[in-house]
Amino acid sequence: MRVFFCFFISLSMCFTSCGKGGDVSPGDDPNFTIVSHDDDGFGGFNRKVVVFGIPIYAKRRVEDSRLLHAANIMAQYLDNDEDGEVDNEDVLNAMLEANAFMVMWKSQSDLIFLSPPDDMEGQDLGNDETIIDWHSNGQEGQFDASLEEVLHIITHAGYANAYPEVFGESQGSALCNAMDIARGGQFFEIPNQYPDEAWYHYDDATCEYDCMATEYIYWALTSMLGAQSNRGGEIGHEWKLHTPELVEETDVAIFQLLTNEEYAFPTVLPDGRYMQ
Length: 276
What we know:
The chain has helices at residues 64-78, 89-97, 146-162, 164-167, 174-182, 209-224, 232-235, 244-250, 252-258, and strands spanning 47-51, 54-58, 100-105, 121-126. It is an alpha/beta fold.
């Protein structure tokens, strides 16, 4: 996860984004329009798509198809039943109040001169890690990282702010209490060795406790949605519960949180084909 760093934009059923037109292609998508913009702090990003008021900016070399794919993934996470309305307005409102955004890059050097206002919460996503075909080829091959990075901004800026006592990313929230069980203890630094009973073994020294909570909810929810079922060998060093059944049987605390209807978490894995 690479979290960088807060107004409501009205929507039409087609979620046509606002901003100035320009020499950019609108893209080929029935729900989203790519537009140019002059938004402060994003001068190096030549276009954007807005999903339920949340902008996704892209560098020039980012492919339109991948930008639109990320937009569809975000829409499906937020409106999982695809009825044209977000499933949890409190989450969306929290994201809007936090001025949540995403940026897409071709090379990580694209991020050097990114300078959004200080009151914004952002998440990045790479062009080459956005794998559209993963969804149609039996979930084999390189994983579609848009499923991870888009979810990060939704949980970090949305759920954590809307329900701080439940999904907050600091010590004592229900989410972090569940994570402490999953890691075999409350570790604010990476332990030399995780306890044998732990099933979540995050070992990135650059990721602090709050970041670990964001990663934890990603692993749990996407495993429950079936995204990790074919990846047990690839991810087992970090996350052992790669199927819905394993999460339900082993991580009772997080399973109960993520299936509580009050919070309206997705129940269907996004495939990048919102309302199609």
